[in-house]
Amino acid sequence: MSLLRRPAFYLCLLIASTAHLPAQAQNLLSLVESARNYDAAVQASRAQLEAAQRRADQARAGLLPSAGLSSGVSRANTDISNPSSDRSSTSQTIGINATQPLYRPANRITYTQGQRGVDIAQAQLEAANQDLLVRVSQAYFDVLAAQDTLMFVQAQKAAVSEQLASAKRNFEVGTATVTDSREAQARYDLVLAQEIAADNDLRVKRLALDQLTGSTGSQPKPLALPAKLPDVQPQEVNAWVQTALDRQPTLLQAQTTLDIAKLETQKAETGHLPTVDLQAGYNIARNPNGTAVNPGISNRTNTASVGVTLNLPLFAGFAVQNRVKETVALEEQARANLEAARRNIAQATRAAFFGVESAQGQVKALEAAEASSQSALDANQLGYQVGVRINIDVLNAQSQLFQTKRDLAQARYNVLLGTLKLRQTAGTLSVDDLQAINALLVN
Prior knowledge:
Elements: H1 6-19, H2 28-36, H3 40-60, E1 66-81, E2 84-103, H4 105-173, H5 178-213, H6 237-247, H7 249-269, E3 275-287, E4 299-311, H8 319-386, H9 391-426, H10 431-438
Antiparallel strand pairs: 1-2, 2-3, 3-4
Helix pairs in contact: 1-4, 2-4, 3-4, 4-5, 4-7, 4-9, 6-8, 7-8, 8-9
């Protein structure tokens, strides 16, 4: 085979070797599913949601009746001086009493706040799930990028090795100087160092993916080439910004926090309002050996009662007024935080959208650069054979070609990750979006 095509030949051999994946190779969705049941952040968000639901149930208790059973036994000794006597008596009591709130506005507001707290926890869980999808995808494509880097470095090493052998042969026959051999040897030593670094980086990236998914020895499936990268729909940035303002979990949390702060102000204002409770009870009092007034005469008293209790606050040392002022200030703080979140989300959405557009443009430019670099390498190799180019020209052209191939592979991953991050910023990222990327992988 001619030297002109050998670098591309070595690269094709390495790419073909990756096409025959081991049986345990996983796609993106399978690793996401593993991480979903393993990730500590998602599990913590689920527990937080459960706790919020139980807090809401506790707040509901303020609207429901309460009942209590009470009983007691007491003994009294009474000394009477005139006439002198010592009388003892025993009292036994038992009763059940119940209270039903009729008008307690603070309790109803607390219950509403509990429900909104569940909404916040639900939004936090949704944000954690979307963040998990991005983290797994990032780790997945980090491994693929590290594999590509190692593959391209090994292909470059094979090409440089061939160039080194050619330079030595030409020097032996007198058609090249010793400089060509030394330049090729220097480039070969540099590529060896790059291969060691790339191999270590791949190990680190695989460990990170294993830690995230809870598995061992993850083998991500690579992209099927040529890859047709998905377009961003809609292609208008303002549409993405509006979607983010409507659906982003962070904004939903900030909005709900403001709603809770408003309810807290309303609850503070109820400090001036009366409360009304319905109370009912049934109590039994028994004196088996009489009382100090009627000794020796056993008696029993059964009392049933029902009534309405009104409690009207009159003055509490200005505590209610100051509490209202405090909650109003906290409400303004929550409103400012919501506005800051809106601005940050809008900016992040625009940055993510333009980042995807830039990555797509880089892919097209690098595809053109790859073809140009291949042509430049072919021309330099031909020129080297006929004596119009020197060895360093060929080595530089080889390095440029493999660098361009590596950058192109990374740019493709950046487009896919950028699309996922854009949807995460807009609050619409779901497993269905990963399904579209999963279809681009090798089967």
